[in-house]
Amino acid sequence: MYPSLANSEELLLDYATGSLPVAPSLVVATWLTLNPAARRQLGALEAIGGALLEESRPASLAAGAKAALLARLDEPQDETLDEAQSAPPPVAGGRGLPAPLAALLPAPLEALPWRRRMPGLKDWDLPALAGGKARLMRVAGRTRIPHHTHNGLELTLVLDGAFEDGGRTYAAGDLQLADPSVDHSPAVTRREACLCLVVTDAPVRLTGRFGRLLNGLVRY
Length: 220
What we know:
alpha+beta, Jelly Rolls, disordered N terminus, two-stranded antiparallel sheet, 2 domains, Arc Repressor Mutant, subunit A
């Protein structure tokens, strides 16, 4: 069972209030450049928060206030939001990546020192960031990731291509959240490779018949 959409809403809420650590904030900032729906959702959060701030008097936060705020996101939103909020911000020149991510790369994608983790899977670690380990992951077409679960939270943002998991297709601009309740084996079923930005706050744990035998040897 996958985390509900409420998790991404809480992620945006923490981002909007500045309480999200640097590593997951990088994922959210990059996600916002790629996904107009996420930008509209963030705009709604900020508008609601601003209205509540104007109407409120200094007082302690009531129990359940955060849940009530998230519930208001399910209400129909005005589709005539400012056009600037719907248009994707410019990406960094020559890199083909959203500016928040491209700013951290020392070289174009093809010049990075990619590591081969398994047939069809390469990755590159971004500079150390507070709040999690961030990496770029490139998965070749027709490749399945071994079954694994999570000791913490994993954020996977598709930058290019697509992968399938849990009966759903995640394409460019889609964000997947996974936690210890998820045991899965994502797969790139198309010919084209899939490029993702992945942040984890704890190592993953291999499962399945052979995966359990490798946990003592493999740390990821």
